[in-house]
Amino acid sequence: MNRPRGIYFILIWFFLSFAMQMKPFFQIVKMGFSSKRKQLHNNLKDLFAPADAKEVLRSVGVSPLARAEDLSLESWYRLYQRLNNGRT
To answer: Which of 81, 85, 69, 67 lies closest to 25, judged by CA?
Structure first.
């Protein structure tokens, strides 16, 4: 069966461009889970001072005392958007 190569190229290009756009999102999630049994604001200390991290979490509707595993996917995405200045 002769399959058009252009379709494969488009699918690979689409997948790679999507993966590159989501890389910063997954970096934030990875940072959130970097230390077990820590509150999320402590895991974000490389991005913010602890007090600032708590305020950022509050601004996206997350408890400042939350742990990474407490967040829903939607909460992670809101945090990503906040850290990315609202850009998706």
So the answer is: 81
